[in-house]
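Per your request, structure below.
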């Protein structure tokens, strides 16, 4: 990076967005912030804008920051060719359209938003190829794989690690009656609420398999999941000749965020301390228990079916997770509800973006209606 990289962050007030700003603060001479876009936490967005002085902001409610122009849509950020790269750090489907818009404008993407690929991976990756746009994953597992791959044609399989979440070694009964607070207590990673619940049910891993399929173009049968409770090995690849390359590091999202926004360069940046194998002492691996965590198999199934199956899986699961966070349903019901809605979905193959959004809306309504009915 011999000149300042112009960056915008969609979702600057969330978990990834705030950590990205911590990275950028350490690398102030490397970046110029074009725009920051935040969700409901307008106060935080305002203080971020006052501190980092972006040219533009986008907020869900009207705010004013002197010296900064307020935009009226995320698309305006995505269409602004001043950007070299846009970090899509928001969660949910809101990330999809601006990502496509940015790709059409030839702007590289640092992608933290899983839904973009789970909902519309075929369309997004095709468009990125057409426009010569780089999509650099921020998700730690995919970022690890991105770092391991030298020649993708020589790679036989991807090995995605999973911490196993807070219920890894708890009984099925304990898991069934888990409270929201217990579920949100993730042993390794500090993340947003929705993804933390997904990590507890392992649906997060399911969504990551779909994400990996699109990012790296591997068949689902060549993407493996292994439980690794310490979250030090962030994922690995196996080459044809049996060589396995893994990426290791302390479990901090700062590292993959920094990698994605500075790629292909590397800087000391926010690194806090040096890695020590002897400090870590041991690394454990085990096969996932698909009976206890059936979400992973459901995600494989959805991925293999393709079309709108994965958008349906995503929408039903997210609505069920919200219902759990609202105290309306039990943890295990997230899977039961998701599976029921998924099984009833009539898949559209090769959908358009509009069809995907329509499926997303219909499935959410259906899921909410079904939840309302079962909690009566
Ligand atoms: Mg991940």
């Amino acid at each position: 990076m011999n000149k300042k990289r112009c960056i915008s962050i969609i979702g600057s007030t969330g978990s990834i967005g705030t950590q990205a700003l911590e990275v950028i603060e350490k690398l102030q001479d490397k970046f110029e912030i074009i725009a920051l876009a935040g969700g409901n936490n307008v106060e935080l967005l305002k203080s971020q804008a006052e501190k980092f002085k972006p040219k533009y902001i986008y907020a869900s409610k009207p705010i004013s920051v002197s010296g900064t122009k307020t935009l009226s849509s995320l698309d305006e950020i995505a269409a602004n060719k001043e950007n070299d790269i846009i970090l899509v750090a928001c969660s949910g489907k809101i990330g999809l359209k601006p990502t496509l818009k940015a790709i059409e404008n030839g702007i590289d993407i640092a992608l933290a938003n899983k839904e973009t690929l789970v909902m519309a991976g075929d369309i997004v990756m095709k468009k990125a190829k057409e426009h010569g746009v780089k999509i650099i994953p921020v998700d730690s597992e995919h970022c690890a794989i991105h770092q391991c791959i030298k020649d993708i044609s020589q790679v036989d399989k991807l090995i995605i690690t999973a911490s196993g979440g807070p219920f890894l070694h708890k009984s099925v009964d304990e898991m069934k009656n888990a409270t929201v607070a217990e579920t949100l207590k993730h042993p390794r990673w500090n993340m947003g609420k929705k993804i933390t619940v997904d990590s507890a049910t392992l649906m997060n891993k399911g969504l990551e398999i779909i994400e990996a399929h699109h990012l790296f173009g591997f068949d689902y049968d060549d993407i493996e999941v292994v439980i690794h409770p310490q979250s030090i090995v962030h994922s690995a690849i196996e080459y044809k000749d049996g060589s396995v390359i893994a990426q290791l590091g302390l479990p901090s999202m700062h590292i993959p965020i920094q990698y994605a926004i500075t790629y292909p360069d590397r800087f000391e940046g926010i690194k806090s301390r040096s890695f020590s194998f002897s400090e870590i002492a041991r690394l454990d691996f085990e096969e996932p228990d698909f009976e206890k965590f059936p979400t992973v198999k459901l995600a494989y199934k959805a991925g293999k079916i393709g079309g709108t199956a994965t958008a349906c899986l995503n929408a039903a699961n997210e609505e069920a997770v919200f219902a759990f966070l609202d105290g309306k349903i039990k943890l295990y019901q997230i899977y039961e509800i998701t599976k029921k809605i998924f099984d009833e979905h009539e898949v559209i193959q090769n959908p358009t973006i509009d069809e995907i959004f329509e499926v997303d809306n219909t499935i959410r309504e259906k899921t909410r209606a079904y939840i309302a009915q079962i909690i009566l």
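The mean pLDDT is 95.

Regards,
D.
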